[in-house]
Write a structure and sequence with these properties.
Layout (H helix, E strand, L loop, with lengths): L11 E6 L6 H8 L6 E4 L9 E4 L4 E5 L9 H18 L3 E9 L6 H13 L2 E7 L9 H12 L4 E2 L8 H9 L3
Parallel strand pairs: 1-4, 1-5, 5-6, 6-7
Antiparallel strand pairs: 2-3, 3-4
The structure holds guanosine-5'-diphosphate (GDP).
Guanosine-5'-diphosphate (GDP) binds next to helix 1.
Length: about 180
């Protein structure tokens, strides 16, 4: 998707990025009641594009295409990279980038590539550790520490299944309005 195809509106945008299967759609569905999701722009059947969801008159969630399908990092940079970078670099109303990391595995090299790049170039960053319900209670402190060390920030544990982390995430998003 090219910049000229982005919707034109004054809403503050909150972008979500993560590797495929990280739980991004589940997170969107958990924080936004499905019937209230208004697509400002969505190309049906195309997951490898940017989808814009108006939350209200002031906020818009931006679902960036999942990365990591391509095993080869170069392929990632060639196809996924330019679309994401183009958006992250050029979008004035982007206020927050939420980077999703699978809590069971910690950040992948693709996650770290995005994180390192976004830290120097983009908006405010929030790391969310998804599928938190799948991490054994006895391992949670260690997992959080590992993610904190890898990313340099404290991740927010989140589970679409149990609802943990949902309220703080919604509050963070709402506070941007
Ligand atoms: P996406 O590709 O990033 O949009 O990922 P999906 O939201 O489609 O989720 C990928 C898989 O992980 C699906 O099988 C989901 O049911 C599962 N999943 C997503 N979120 C959670 C979660 O919080 N807990 C658990 N246990 N499974 C989850």
């Amino acid at each position: 998707m090219k910049p000229e195809e982005y919707p034109s509106h004054d809403r503050v945008e909150i972008a979500l990025a993560g590797r495929s299967n990280v739980g991004k759609s589940s997170l969107v569905n958990a924080i936004v009641p499905l019937k209230r999701l208004a697509y400002v722009s969505k190309q049906p059947g195309r997951t490898q594009t940017i989808n814009f969801y108006a939350l209200d008159e002031r906020l818009c969630l931006v679902d960036l295409p999942g990365y990591g399908y391509a095993k080869v990092p170069r392929k990632l940079r060639e196809s996924w990279g330019p679309m994401i970078e183009g958006y992250l670099r050029g979008r004035d109303q982007l206020r927050l980038l939420i980077a999703l990391v699978d809590a069971r595995h910690g950040p992948t090299s693709d996650d770290l590539t995005l994180w390192e790049w976004a830290r120097g170039n983009g908006p405010e960053l929030l790391a969310v550790a998804t599928k938190w319900d799948k991490v054994k209670k006895s391992e949670r402190a260690k997992r959080l520490r590992e993610m904190r060390e890898a990313l340099g920030v404290e991740p927010l544990p989140f589970s679409a299944t149990s609802g943990e982390g949902r309220d703080p995430l919604i509050q963070t998003i709402r506070s941007l309005a």
